[in-house]
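User: Can you write out an input/output pair for a complex, sequences first and structure second?

Assistant: Here is one pair. Inputs:
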Amino acid sequence: MEPLVVAKNLVKIYQAGEIEVRALRGVSFEINPGQFVSFTGPSGSGKTTLLNLIGSLDVQTSGELVVAGQHVNQLNIRQRANFRGHNIGIIFQDFNLIPVLTVRENVEYPLLMVKPTPAAERSKIVTKLLEQVGIAEQADKFPNQISGGQKQRVAIARALSTAPKLVLADEPTANLDKATSTRIIDLMKELKNQLGTSFIFSTHDPRVVSHADIIYVLEDGQLQTPTAENTMGHGGKN
Amino acid sequence: METARIAFRNLYRQKRRTGLTVSIIAFGVVAVILFTALAGSFKNMMISQITDSMLGHLQIHRSGYVESLDTMPLNLVIEEKHIDQLKKVLGEIREIEGYTLRILLATLLSNYADTTNIKLSAIDPASEQLVTPLLPGRITEGKFLEKGQILLPNLVARGLELGIASEAVVIATNVDGSVNGTSLVVSGIVETTVGPSGKYGYIHIDDARELLRMESLQVSEVAIRLKDAETLTPVMKKLQTALEGIKDDKGKPVFEVHPWKALSPFNNIANMIDLMTIFIQVILVTIVLISIMNVMLMAVYERTKEIGTIAAIGTMPSSIMSLFIFEGLFLGIAGVAVGNITGLVLVYAVKAAEMTISFGQSDNILLAPQISLSTMLATTFIVILVTLLGAVEPAYKASQLDPVEALRN
């Protein structure tokens, strides 16, 4: 099986004024299709930077990164947007729902603006996704009318609407309580099993990490633990 | 199409911001419509005061009369044989409502004790009223003219203490240089359109012929009134073509045709009003442009995170730009629609209120604002174009936002 993500010696250096910030210092790993992967580590360890690189929102300073068979650093801004739209779904820590759109419209948005889909098919996809994430009854509500957990369910549905190969979730449970966090992670894992979509999420919450198939620990921009099966008691189970 | 639909939905759901922006655009459009309508009304009223009470729309003179060094020269008159030819030509042009023959003469006026100079227009009262229907309205005392009578301007009547039914003596020099006088009765006092210092009076054309001892009919000018003032240029061209073939003994054209604009300094004021209208329109359109740019830029700043989100999930920069351009376009269309409707309502309200103004010596001139369809269409086109222009820079800015930076916002 060809890996979905291959990272070799990834380095990312930011220039913050006159200070050089080395966010990633030679990170290497591989992720296969259908895996449920967690990057964990303290704040500032490089989790978000790594997810931005995988999501082609940013490009590495050096090293090699291949996502879905594509060297993403070789793409221009336009091609990267197109690549994201067709291969990657993104779930944000702050949910990032569009406030003037209803729940249904937020999920529908990528099918209108990113991957144009005929109305009938669009409606079918959205309805199914809303049911899968258990938010169908809230379809006509606006984001400010639903809870945090519900918002993240909408964000998950939106990320899955274009049937991406990979979903990236940056601290998806950071703004949620413990019970809701667990439900959201369970939902993501369930959807991974149903749809075969790979999920990569970052977190520093050990209770959430424990749900991952593979856990990578980042510290000071370096992987502390080599690529391995989950050693925290839930490894290898899909 | 979907981008347009989403842009429309964004605006519809952001009612306060959309309402504010639409109000700004509408205000600009209303101001343009109202100012154009009122300025146009004032200009038309002013022109009609000049043409309908004094000049007529067109005038025909003997060639060289208007540019003559002499004031009201009597040696440059239209002879009777040419008057007949002229009448024939005028009778064939359907756009002409009527015409009147005038003799203009510079004279002295006496009350037997004091004497002053006065310019007189010798007219045929019936045809004169057809060409200058507002003339009788300028009579502040007494009545219109009959043979043997004189209409005096305020200034002269006051200066010489000549009241209604007073006797005045008019003294003039005819073309041969002989001085003649005639006694006339004051029929009325007339206010002038050129201010209180005007010294223009009226006598009957037959009295002028006797005074100047004209054996045949000779006139200084022929004033013409058109059925529609808008046809002035084509009628003038038609007249020039028809009259250019009529030559004098030396083979030179007998007639020259002048529009009212060439005979009155008020044309400069009319041009100034047009210029001022354009200036105001430019200012208002600039205000709309700046407002739109400001509002759209604010929208981009307010929605940075939203833009970052849609960019992150794969929306192409061109689609993001289109989204904001469409929002600008819809704001422009809505603003123009609201502005046009409000502007029209206000124009009709002002018209219905029958507001009056004073101009020259005339009071209670009804203000009749009106706006042409072409002006409204031009305003609509320009404002929508300006709104689009105003949206381009913010839209481009939005499309070029780095998603990572925008998401940190």
